[in-house]
Amino acid sequence: MSNSRLTVREIARLAGVSVATVSRVSNGTGQVSEETRRRVLRAIEEHGYRPDHLGRALAARRHGAVGLVFPGLSGPYFSELIQGFESEAVKAKTSVHILCTHLRADSDAEVIEMAHRVDGLAVLGGTVSHDTIEELATMRPIVVLAGDGPAGVPAVRVDNAAATAALTRHLLVDHGLRRLEFVGDPNGSPDVTERWAGFRQAHRDLELPLPRAPIRVGLQQPDGVFAADQVLRRAIRPQGVVCANDETALGVLIGASGRGLRVPEDLVITGFDDIPMAALVTPPLTTVRQPVRELASQTARLLLQVAAGSADHTSLLHPTELVIRGSCGCPTSTAPTPTGRRRTPQIAPQRHEPSGAGDHP
Fold first, then answer.
1. How many CB atoms lie within 10 A of CB 158?
2. Structure confidence by residue, pLDDT tens digits, 56-100
């Protein structure tokens, strides 16, 4: 008996295959064994499944809008992403619909519902499951922003692991520090997972003992203030902290200074992102600059191009830049750039072997 309301995920379950396989069979693309193809086609025929191919025609402007999916909107990072994305959408005379999931249990269903009201979707990495992204890809053009998607789904991102490894090596080699801690929750987002991996990889590369478990906090300034308390409670205080982002690092800086610690003399602090405030605090923050606005604008351009059939599904990996300022103990440059940072070489994307997930006590 047919059921037009069956989703691609349900057809995949009935056929005993992945969502991506159902998509390849229904679209007539990709490599699928003849036995698997027959099994999928049988499930499609028996249950009356009809895939939605309408999303391929963004050029037809069925809705005249694209979707942007975030976990939330707090802080300057998301503001930069929105401005970069919207700048390209405006040029294409396309409106932008923003959905904040706040990582609710029904996030996947909310995003699928949104897909019916837009012509394409950009989803921040880690906001919804890979299964949902595969399902969305059968409905609408989709690009993953600042994260990895399933095979065949384009993504625009930076190499977080390589960038954090370079920053950590600067502290370990150039400053001779040995007691470093990572501030951030690797389970909170793909970005933080990769940055934690890069932090550990730098210790491996130098054949140093692996760092202990991170101070697991969120990504906002109050979380950094809380982390500063955790640092002070350590029986042996770390010499420096590598924070998962600038907002957390600024919170640690505020918390540490308010408790009488001198930065960088008593505690070195570094961040990631290079938000505008990073250059304005005292001491200015050593960090990794990623082109946040450009990541978002490139995502919008790629989404529009893929939807119009003028680009393939190639993912893009942007370089980053190590920004050396006073919070790591380096002298302030006498000839700063307009952002107040010393010029340093860009960090090219690299390949990394998977690192172990275990933490040292």
1. 24
2. 443 444 678 999 999 888 788 899 999 999 999 999 889 999 999
Average pLDDT over residues 175-188: 95
The reply to whether 54-157+293-318 and 160-291+320-347 are identical in fold is: yes
Confidence of residue 329 (pLDDT cuts 50, 70, 90): very high
Q: Which CATH superfamily is domain 160-291+320-347 in?
A: Response regulator (3.40.50.2300)
**Per-residue CA distances from 162 to 6, 182, 206, 294, 348 (Å):** 42, 15, 15, 19, 8
- The span from the CA of 281 to the CA of 276, in Å, is 10
275 phi/psi in degrees, rounded to 5: -70, 160
Phi, psi dihedrals of residue 70, rounded to the nearest 5°: -125, 160
Residues 6+ apart with CB under 8 A from 181: 211, 212, 214, 215, 231, 234, 238, 240, 241, 242
Task: Give the CA count within 13 Å in the CB-facing half-sphere of 178.
Answer: 4
- Write out pLDDT tens, residues 108-161: 888 998 998 898 999 999 888 888 999 898 888 999 999 888 888 999 999 999
Domain ranges of the chain: 8-47, 54-157+293-318, 160-291+320-347
Helix (H) and strand (E) counts in the chain:
11, 12
**Torsion sign across C-alpha atoms 204, 208, 210, 215:** negative
Measured distance CA(34)–CA(73) in Å, rounded: 46
- Closest among 270, 321, 271 to 294, alpha carbons compared: 321
11-14-18-19 Cα dihedral, nearest 10 degrees: 10
Distance CA 218, CA 183 (A): 9
Least confident window among 54-68, 174-188, 236-250: 54-68
Q: Which residues pair with 142 in a beta bridge?
A: 121
* CATH homologous superfamily for the domain 54-157+293-318: Response regulator (3.40.50.2300)
Share of the chain above pLDDT 70, in %: 84
